[in-house]
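About this split. The held-out portion is used to measure sequence recovery: a designer receives only the structure tokens and must propose an amino acid at every position. Recovery is the fraction of positions where the proposal matches the reference. Here is one held-out target exactly as it appears in the evaluation file.
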């Protein structure tokens, strides 16, 4: 029996697809959070 070292292409592509899906879901919220933080920073400095 041969032992497997590393990942297959299908496993790597599956993980990449899951990561991209998570990023697509999180991006709008992260963008709003960044904008709110910039606004707070601007208000605090002026």
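Reference sequence for scoring:
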């Amino acid at each position: 029996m041969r032992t497997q070292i590393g990942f297959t292409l299908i496993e790597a592509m599956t993980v990449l697809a899951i990561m991209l899906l998570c990023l697509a879901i999180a991006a709008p919220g992260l963008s709003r959070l960044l904008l709110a933080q910039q606004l707070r920073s601007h208000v605090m400095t002026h």
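Annotator remark: The longest helix spans residues 9-45.
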